[in-house]
Amino acid sequence: MVMNCDWSKPSKSGFLRPAQNAHTYLRFQDLVRTANKGQVEGGSQLAASWPRPPAYRYEILDRNSKVGNCIPLADIRMGTWVHDIECHPGQGAKLAQAAGTYAKIMLEPASQCLVQLPSGVEKLIDSRCRATIGIVSNPNHGARKLRKAGQSRWLGRRPIVRGVAMNPVDHPHGGGEGRTKGGRPSVSPWGKPTKAGFRAVVGVGKRRI
Questions:
Q1: What region holds the Large ribosomal subunit protein uL2 C-terminal domain (predicted)?
Q2: Using one digit for the tens of pLDDT, what is the confidence trace for 90-108?
Q3: Sequence-distant contacts of 31-36: CB under 8 A, at least 24 apart
């Protein structure tokens, strides 16, 4: 049983929205403690008649350490491993989504929270953004080896063929004797330049209004 703090939806339970139902949430915590001890002021017989479920049912009350809880960064302790982090409040998960990845809370959350991403880069994120506590499953995903070429095709990956290895009818770089691409810059199969410099100079020389 995990908890998702979705601030965009109305509250339906004290478990899901403890920040907006603080009085109910804290009162329920007090009742749980006193019921477990069997001591309720003015009603010890009533407390004795209450069912006593196991204590593990109330572990969800400690929402800052429950793996799988999706809560704002402001409510997460320093040093916690998190994943599926939002960049803007309510935007949805954007960071640390790959298999086996996680980020780490580096400083005590304030208006902005310092998070160390899987790449090692430290990023300041709005503390209202949500994150899920824990690590993404399947950490051995990147270490697996494909047994044969056909297994790569099963994953939907098609072969990559160089343009200079094709015929002129198939690619602008095709044909010729030896490894030559006809003395022209690198282009796509449809004749458009592919180097980064082409994108950088798009629009140069045009009239400015």
A1: 65-193
A2: 888 999 999 999 999 998 7
A3: 32/58, 32/61
